[in-house]
UniProtKB/TrEMBL annotation:
Protein name: Zinc finger CGNR domain-containing protein
Record-annotated Zinc finger CGNR domain positions: 135-177
Organism classification: Bacteria, Bacillati, Actinomycetota, Actinomycetes, Streptosporangiales
PANTHER family named among the record's database cross-references: BLL6575 PROTEIN (PTHR35525)
Length: 179
């Protein structure tokens, strides 16, 4: 889930915290955005190429409609099923000798892009499949298109982070004061 949110925000966001942004347009820019997101999340850099980053931008654009989908979730899930099939999502146990096996959702020998797409798609499908699709949130602040996975106890998160929440509340307060 963390990787899906990271990629959608890094490669498909058109506004961030009230400011319009242009998503990265070239493979090099996309690769830099992915590596910056991974570094911010404390994850090691990937073995991706610029061409891989271009393909992941397409995956991120396909995953974006799932966040904040609400009543449109069934239609978005149909596209998710297509993504899972295209990238060969299949449960697989793998591991090194002497170490515990790990569960992944991509076929052995899959490309890094197919592996990431299959794993992210499966994570989203599992969340939706257990009735928790509402936890796939999109920021409700004006001019912010960032997404998040809501881990709050009562699934009530509405904003990507505190800065958007503060901005939205201040704006609402000013609007009330004007009237």
């Amino acid at each position: 889930m963390e990787l899906a949110v990271l990629l959608v925000n890094a490669l498909a966001a058109e506004s961030v915290h009230g400011r319009p942004v242009t998503p990265p347009q070239t493979g090099g820019e996309r690769l830099a955005a992915i590596h910056a997101g991974l570094a911010a999340a404390g994850r090691p850099p990937s073995g991706l190429t610029a061409a891989d980053a271009d393909r992941l931008a397409e995956v991120a654009a396909e995953l974006r409609p799932l966040y904040g989908a609400g009543d449109r979730l069934p239609e978005a899930a149909e596209r998710l099923n297509d993504l899972l099939a295209r990238h060969g999502a299949v449960p697989t146990l793998y591991g090194d000798p002497g170490k515990p096996l790990q569960l992944a959702f991509h076929r052995p020998g899959a490309t890094l892009v197919d592996a990431w797409a299959a794993d992210m798609g499966t994570a989203l499908a599992m969340v939706i499949g257990v009735g928790q699709g509402a936890r796939l949130g999109a920021c409700q602040a004006a001019s912010c298109s960032l997404v998040f996975f809501d881990t709050t106890r009562n699934a009530s998160r509405r904003f990507c982070d505190l800065s958007c929440q503060n901005r939205a509340k201040a704006s609402a307060y000013r609007a009330r004061r004007r009237t």
